[in-house]
Amino acid sequence: MFTGIIKKIGKIKSWDKKKRVLSVESQFSELILGESISCSGVCLTVTEFKKDLFYCNLSSETLLKTNLKYKKIGDKINLEKSLKVGEDLSGHLVFGHVDGLSKLEEKRIDKDCWILKFSIPRKLSKFLTEKCSISVDGISLTVNKVSKSNLFEVSIVPHTWKNTNLQFSKEGDFFNIEIDMLSRYVFKALNK
Question: Does residue 40 form part of some domain?
């Protein structure tokens, strides 16, 4: 489990799509074999590590549901180590279980913030409402606006912009989306 507060930006060093092994350059110290790390919102297990690299195996499900299948060597990804009991929960509960992909449709500046507009699959848009939490590439964000045409907007403050992979984003890029678990459970309970 994670908070959606990104700790580091990692860089993909190698990506063996045949063996489905990804290596990430990071500045994390004291890695533990078998620990979970959120890699742009995808909960991955550390299977090996060296000085400033860690390795993860990707399953068929991970490749099917996430944007990791589009990543190339040199691409930047958001990193967060798993939440430990007693630590501050500054974002919202993020599980690292990606629900699907959203496409960045528009990026604009509004004073000192960036407004990002994403399209989202209809099967996920039903869970969104203004001011709900959402995880975009592992980043805990608040939805500003939801439109009937399966679009939603978020505001990105300068700190988040400078400390996440959003600063490298381009319109047309795909991002991992995780719907807030509370929204999902409330939706399911009300439909029963």
Answer: yes
Number of domains in the chain: 2
- pTM, rounded to two decimals: 0.92
Per-residue pLDDT of the chain (192 residues), as tens digits, is: 899 999 999 999 999 999 999 999 999 988 999 999 999 999 999 999 998 999 999 999 999 999 999 999 999 999 999 987 777 777 788 889 999 999 999 999 999 999 999 999 999 998 898 999 999 999 999 999 999 889 999 999 999 999 999 999 999 999 999 998 777 667 666 776
- The verdict on residue 116 lying in a domain is yes
In CATH, what number is assigned to the domain containing residue 141? 2.40.30.20
The per-residue DSSP string of 91-138 comes to S--B-S---EEEEEEEEEEETTEEEEEEE--HHHHTT--TT-EEEETT
With contact defined as beta carbons under 8 Å apart, do 71 and 15 qualify? yes
